[in-house]
């Protein structure tokens, strides 16, 4: 068995990359945990409403806003729990390699390289679920920004459906090819995985552009006030897209264990990508909660949220006019200032 294994230097490099990338991922999860609980606290605090101070005419708006707040909290919580589960899987792999099969360096190498079928399928499903949840949250925001227009989110929605289909295909390929692993099967899995990351990247970019265009078009008279909103969305999407590009680079060419630098890059970038995929939407919510009101608040005569636009007559100069939509909801992105003041 030992004659078929790579050299000791290659084994050490692979084991070191696997161990150190898991430690790095754990450290990043500590940062993620801090941001997650801090974001939940800030979001709950900024969304707390004194019902006795709310006019009757705004009761429906408050109830609708609360349902959206629950959606945001549920999604970022699901992202966090999935990331925790992902770290747990990586530590399980290390425990199996070093504790259960840690007799020799060769045994550790083989245990890290060859995983059980169930582990490969669950690990892959957990990873792609993080990407899907992040894209769902972004598309959901885009849907409300465009006044619940299905037509507006048609492109990112179709890309999301394709993303889900590719995710299912990867898991099925892992289960089907487990009994007879071939070079062709590995090549097909790599191609499908590469396509998945590209589709997720396109989904993120499309939804971000739609959000930015909508906010920009409805706030021409208050562009400076809402500039920071676009900046938050674009910056978050840019970081997320960069993480996906790292994963695309991991699948553009075949992997050789002799190429120790490339193998290490795959280990570290994978640990980084799937933490960032959950962390970025959470940080965006946190940044929105602590955003200054004076840069985005509308006139006191509007009785609307920080990005709750009410289309009315053009004679009302204090309001942002809309050509066709009766109301454009961007309150998903920003909590209403009235809610922050009563917190």
TrEMBL record:
Q: Where is the signal peptide?
A: none
Q: Which UniProt keywords apply?
A: Membrane, Transmembrane, Transmembrane helix
Query: Which chain regions cross the lipid bilayer?
Result: 23-43, 71-89, 117-140, 152-174, 194-217, 229-249, 261-280
Instruction: Give yes or no: UniProt keyword Membrane.
Output: yes
- Report the protein name in the record: G-protein coupled receptors family 1 profile domain-containing protein
What organism, scientifically named, is this protein from? Galerina marginata (strain CBS 339.88)
């Amino acid at each position: 068995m030992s004659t078929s294994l790579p050299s000791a230097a290659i084994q050490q490099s692979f084991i070191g990359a696997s161990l150190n990338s898991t430690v790095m991922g754990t450290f990043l999860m500590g940062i993620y945990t801090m941001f997650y609980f801090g974001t939940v606290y800030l979001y709950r605090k900024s969304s707390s409403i004194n019902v006795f101070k709310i006019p009757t005419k705004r009761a429906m708006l408050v109830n609708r806003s609360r349902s959206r707040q629950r959606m945001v909290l549920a999604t970022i919580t699901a992202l966090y729990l999935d990331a925790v589960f992902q770290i747990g899987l990586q530590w399980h792999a290390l425990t199996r390699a070093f504790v259960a099969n840690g007799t020799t360096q060769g045994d550790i190498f083989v245990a890290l390289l060859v995983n059980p079928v169930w582990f490969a399928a669950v690990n892959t499903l957990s990873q792609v679920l993080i990407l899907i949840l992040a894209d769902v949250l972004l598309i959901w925001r885009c849907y409300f920004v465009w006044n619940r227009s299905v037509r507006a989110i048609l492109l990112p929605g179709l890309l999301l459906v394709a993303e889900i289909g590719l995710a299912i295909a990867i898991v099925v390929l892992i289960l089907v090819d487990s009994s007879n692993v071939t070079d062709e099967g590995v090549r097909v899995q790599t191609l499908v995985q590469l396509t998945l990351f590209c589709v997720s990247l396109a989904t993120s970019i499309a939804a971000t552009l739609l959000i930015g265009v909508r906010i920009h078009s409805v706030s021409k008279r208050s562009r400076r006030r809402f500039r920071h909103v676009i900046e938050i969305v674009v910056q978050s999407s840019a970081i997320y897209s960069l993480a996906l590009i790292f994963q695309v680079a991991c699948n553009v060419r075949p992997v050789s264990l002799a190429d120790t630098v490339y193998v290490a890059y795959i280990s570290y970038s994978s640990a980084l990508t799937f933490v960032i995929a959950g962390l970025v939407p959470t940080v965006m919510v946190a940044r929105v909660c602590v955003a200054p009101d004076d840069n985005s608040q509308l006139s006191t005569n509007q009785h609307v949220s920080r990005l709750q636009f009410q289309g009315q007559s053009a004679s009302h100069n204090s309001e942002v006019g809309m050509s066709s939509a009766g109301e454009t909801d961007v309150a998903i992105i920003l909590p209403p200032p009235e809610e922050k003041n009563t917190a």
